[in-house]
Amino acid sequence: MGVFFDSLLVFILVIILSSATAAKVRHLKWEVEYMHWSPDDQEGVVIAINGQFPGPTIRARAGDTLHLHLTNKLHTEGVVIHWHGIRQIGTPWADGTASISQCAINPGEAFVYRFKVDRAGTYFYHGHYGMQRSAGLYGSLIVDVGEGEKEKFEYDGELSILLSDWWHKGSREQEVDLSSKPMRWIGEPQTLLINGRGQFNCSLAAHFSNSTAAPCKLRGNEQYAPYILKVHPNKTYRLRIASSTALASLNLAIGNHKMRVVEADGNYVKPFTADNIDVYSGDSYSVLFRTDQSPSHNYWLSATVRGREPHTPPALAILNYLPTSPSHLPTSPPPTSPRWDDYPSSKAFSHQILSLPGSPAPPKTPHRRLILLNTQTYINGYTKWSINNISLTLPTTPYLGSIKYNITNAFDAKSPPDRAPPGYNVMRPAPNPNSTYGSGVYVLEFNSTVDVVLQNANALKDNVSEIHPWHLHGHDFWVVGYGEGEFKEGDAAGFNLRDPPYRNTAVIFPYGWTAVRFVADNPGVWAFHCHIEPHLHLGMGVVFAEGVERVRGIPNEAIACGLTGKMLMRNGTR
Ligand code: C2O
Ligand code: CU
Q1: For 317-376, what is each residue's pLDDT tens digit?
Q2: Relative to the CA of 124, which ligand 1 atom is closest?
Q3: Which atom of ligand 1 is nearest to the CA of 282?
Q4: Which of 284, 313, 458, 507 is the 20 to 30 A CA-CA neighbour of 468?
Q5: What is the 3-state secondary structure (H, E, C) of 428-497?
Q6: Alpha carbon of 368 to ligand 1 centroid (Å)
Q7: Where are the alpha helices (DSSP H) in 189-322?
Q8: How far is the CA of 531 from the centre of ligand 1 (A)?
Q9: Ligand 1 centroid – CA 536 distance (Å)
């Protein structure tokens, strides 16, 4: 008896002590709604969360659980939100991908996202249904190290920016344009935004440029007034950067300041110093910089377009050295960044990103290797993007439910091919540019190691090959190699298995390939796709399924549509 009560007492004490520092459940209540807003000096309509654009920043500690009650107040369309970079270990139904992990949340309905943020890092969230990212449905998600833990670098203060791009044409109309025959391309964004702010008709740096843009006349309280990063002199700052652009690849620089890259996509990297950094859609970084410049001035932070001939002026924010007034514009011109088509400099930057010693290391050999050929194609005269000649179309029943409950005819039973037919010339437009629609999935053996080689190619037009940043849900992957031209099996011998960066987004350069390796150890169904929203909309993605039979606890609301909806009704559980 005595022993029993003693150990009970110890048990209770342990619970009380550990809950003092233990992870929290953070409750959030969100309403998603259209709102008039001026991200630049023209008024438009954005998808806002709780009346905010960009949406509220989520801040949590590693190990916390987010309990987020979301109500869809977009009267005429569904919505879902994806937590980009959060692996959703054990909660694949909370990944927020319409038709993959859940049904779109109907107008007027609510859904609870409940998941753990298991690792510190810089992340963001965004809509993952139609083109709602382009409509402004995004925000930052920052996870601090657990209580009592320390980062592997030091800093005195922290700043955070979310980059995006903005069109004056609404996202619904953009969708229609892209889906028309012939396709009407959406064109370059009108404005680049830093934390939701940009200028279109005027320039903050007009007096430095030979362009015709008029100087901005701002009071500072406009919705489109530049974002101000306030700093004290002689300190080290951590700047968190994430890009949720729909299209633009960016280059970021801080005038007169060097940056030291320390984190990429929630993982530590071997620190290196850079004058400017490339940020592709889906990327996140932390950089450190020292406020060692003259404190009586302010400085520019700029983001410029890479990889596409820019028709969009740079985005500018102000690094404000206190106590100097933020209205005191920088006295030097905005920093220069590499030319948009200076691919050697972009490649050099990507190749510099390596993991910090002590980071997770990749298994030495893969069980399976997929080679995914990225091509721009036609289907009955509609322009599409295809992977191994299949353009992804999502089914009406979310895969997670149809696979878990063995529902037949919910999607194409045939798996897409592991590679493109041999002899495809990636340097030239395809002789037969036609492809087909498909909704098949790659079923990965649970716990197996998978290599994916993303193979770029010439687009429909001669001498055009674009940048595509690919993002994987539910996992991080090791970026084990980059190469030019066509990938050959022998290239695998040169993979970097020593210190490849561990991340969730990797870019393929024009006419090149990029190889990633990951372990299929997270039961669920996961999207892997180009993070350029119009490209995904035109079919540029694939779906992986692994260990789905092990998935437990899918909430009924997540799958109450399509064939799983019917199943729930039959079972009387709805
Ligand atoms: Cu941030 Cu599937 O995307
Ligand atoms: Cu793309």
Answers
A1: 999 999 999 999 999 999 989 999 999 999 999 999 999 999 999 999 999 999 999 999
A2: 1
A3: 1
A4: 313
A5: CCCCCCECEEECCCEEECCCCEEEEEEECCCCCCCCCCCCEEEEECCCCEEEEEEEECCCCHHHHHHCCC
A6: 24
A7: none
A8: 6
A9: 10
Q: How far is CA 497 from CA 68, 179, 472, 481, 513, in A?
A: 38, 41, 19, 9, 17
Q: Ligand 1 atom closest to Cα of 97?
A: 2
Residue type, 523: P
What is the token pair recorded at 125?
Answer: 């969230």
In the numeric block, the tokens 């998600």 are attached to 141
Ligand 1, pocket residues at CB < 6 Å? 82, 84, 126, 128, 282, 471, 473, 527, 529, 531
Task: Pick the ligand that lies closest to the CA of residue 470.
Answer: 2
How many angstroms separate the CA atoms of 269 and 277, rounded? 14
Ligand nearest to the CA of 508: 2
CA of 476 to the centre of ligand 1 (A): 13
What is the distance between the alpha carbons of residues 52 and 48, in angstroms, rounded to a whole number? Answer: 5
E strand residue ranges, 42-80: 44-49, 58-61, 65-72
What's the pLDDT tens digit per position in 273-297? 999 999 999 999 999 999 999 999 9
